[in-house]
Amino acid sequence: MNVLMVASECAPFVKTGGLADVVGALPGALARHGVDARVMLPCYPSLFPLLPKGVEVASFGDLPGGSGRLVMVEASSETAGLTLLLLDAPQLFDRAGKPYNGPDGQDWPDNHRRFGSLAQAAARICFDGLEGWKPDVLHAHDWQAALAPVYLKQTGRTVPKTVMTIHNIAFQGRYGPQVMPELGLRHDWFHADGLEFYGDLSFLKAGLVYADHVTTVSPNYAREILTPRFGMGLEGVLQARTETLTGILNGIDTTAWDPSNDPALPAPYDVKTLKAKSASRLALAGKLGLDTDHAGPLFCVISRLTEQKGLDALAAAIPHLVDQGGQLAVLGTGEPALEALFQQAAQDHPGRVGTFIGYDEGFSHLVQGGADAILIPSRFEPCGLTQLYGLRYGTLPVVARTGGLADTVIDANAAALAAKCANGFVFDEVTPEAISAALDRVFAAYADPKQWQAMMRAAMRQPVGWEEQAGAYVSLYESLLQ
Question: Assign residue 351 a region: left if phi > 0, alpha if psi is -120 to 50, beta otherwise?
Fold first, then answer.
């Protein structure tokens, strides 16, 4: 079976969030099931060094954003074992800044043209195939790829089958209807049951309506987005598609994230050598200026610093965390006001709070290895990957009961502790008071080393890889082809 995955980012080449990790890891997991999955990406500057190593396999003269060519770079160590199809269109993607916005933080005004071109190029590959390879399934990820199923449907074709995955329904790709002619979209499809969304064109809605099947990244989030609270205005569209909506939990790359063989850690450890985790704690404390002889639990945050992540509420709970004897390590970047809050917390609590504004993949491994618990107080979280990394590293997640956080973290209640399956702490309301109450439960558990280590072992033994989830995708693809 051949699958064309279309996305705007892919780890380790370009990453702003969990979407990149999924797109980077899922094809390899599918390969173990006999699926040849290739990843189509915009050729951003970070990917330019790969172009000379590839071969041009297609060219396009009339994409919405002008001309472009498709360069295939075969699987190798340089491509992390992935076969990449790079849309090389410098007028669209050769820019300083991030994938979606410039150095000033503002979205590129032609993002509709940039990602419309990506989707249309993907559809054309589905029409014509490549030499010796033609997709049976097109799998589009998030709004940036969501027009690909639409372009296929406009031709009246029923093959390949199409899957649309929602990684975060809050990002929808909305533009005024005036962009439709240059995108080559049918004007008679601009209505409430088609492309139109409150007077605008919505890329994401278009994909949800015209794809053969819709998935999202956890079973709980699949239920949540059917409600007004989480559906972001698209709950009605999804309610009409409940028979073709599936929640498949994300996994992580357990080779890249392995505390027993992680070069970012000063000493490896596993369930049998938990004491070796202390070396990472010492290194982390030294890097962030935290007291190295502190006896209480070391909490961490590895996140985009946004209100969605509940970090405003967490910031208000920092005095309680410190007063009760904890430390906090923060790694992230995001909203300037939240960056300032955590920087101020580090100044107010020297030796107890350390903040690193920015993102560094290797450092994130050290933070996971060195912390005792990871705080994820998200107001909504489609799946979340940092709690899965935390489980893998025996860094117990402290999470809000939402989305994939609720699907993956087993709360340390009496029954779960007795069954020796508790692997974290779950709370309901994202408020400073609720977070403080959850912290108190963590402090109580940490004071009992035997219980804490039992929870660490339960966390590290929980399956968090792609094996089972990749099988679920294969079953879905096969059902569509039947």
Answer: left
